[in-house]
Amino acid sequence: MQLANQKVSLGLINPKNPVNVASILRAAGCYGVASVFYTGQRFRFAKDFNADTKAFHKTIPTIGVDDLRDVVPMGASVVAIELVEGASPLPDFEHPDNAFYILGPEDGSISEDVLSWCDHVVYVPTYSCMNVAATANVLLYDRMAKSEFERGNELIRNSRDKNNKTKLKQQ
C-alpha cells in the first residue's frame, strides 16, 4: 500500500482545543488522511483560530457533523482509539486497508454507545494518557510504519521543509 493511496478518515468527538485539531490536520496531511469529521460545538466556535502551519485545512475536508456514525466511509472498518479495559494494544493491531479512526475528546472518553458500534477498539500503551493530537500522530505513524511505504531520498526531498537541503556526507 502506498501512502498516497490510503483510505483513511478520522472522526473527532467534541474536540475542544483548536491547536490540537490543527496538529491533527498536520498529521493528517503528513500521513495521507482523506478527511476529518468532528462532532460538538467547541471546535466550531474556535476553528477560526488556526495553528495549521502547513495549511492542510485547505486540502483535507474538515466537516462538522452531529453523529460520526452517519459519516462512516463506505466499506471502512471503524477503529476507536481509547484507553479502555479490554482494548487491543496498538503494537499488535493490524490496520484495515480502509479505516475510519475515532478519537475521543481531550477531557473525556469515547462513550460505551460509540464503542458498541466500532469494529475494533485499540489503545496506545503509555505510562499516562496522551492528548488527542499526540495520539493521532502515533496512530497514523504506526499505520504508515506497518505499511509498504515509499522509501528513500525522493520521499525525503518531497517531505521536508523547503529550507532543509541537508545531505549526509558519504563515508
3D structure, described in words:
The chain has 171 residues and is α/β, with parallel strands linked by helices. It is 26% helix and 18% strand. It has helices at residues 18-30, 42-46, 112-116, 132-145, 153-159, and strands at residues 7-12, 35-38, 62-64, 77-81, 88-89, 98-103, 120-123. Helix 1 packs parallel to helix 4.
What's the tally of helices? 5
Q: Helical proportion?
A: 25-40%
- Widest sheet: strand order? 3-2-1-6-4-7-5
Q: What overall form do the CA principal axes indicate?
A: globular
Range of strand content: 15-25%
Task: Give the helix/strand layout.
Elements: E1 7-12, H1 18-30, E2 35-38, H2 42-46, E3 62-64, E4 77-81, E5 88-89, E6 98-103, H3 112-116, E7 120-123, H4 132-145, H5 153-159
Parallel strand pairs: 1-2, 1-6, 2-3, 4-6, 4-7, 5-7
Helix pairs in contact: 1-4
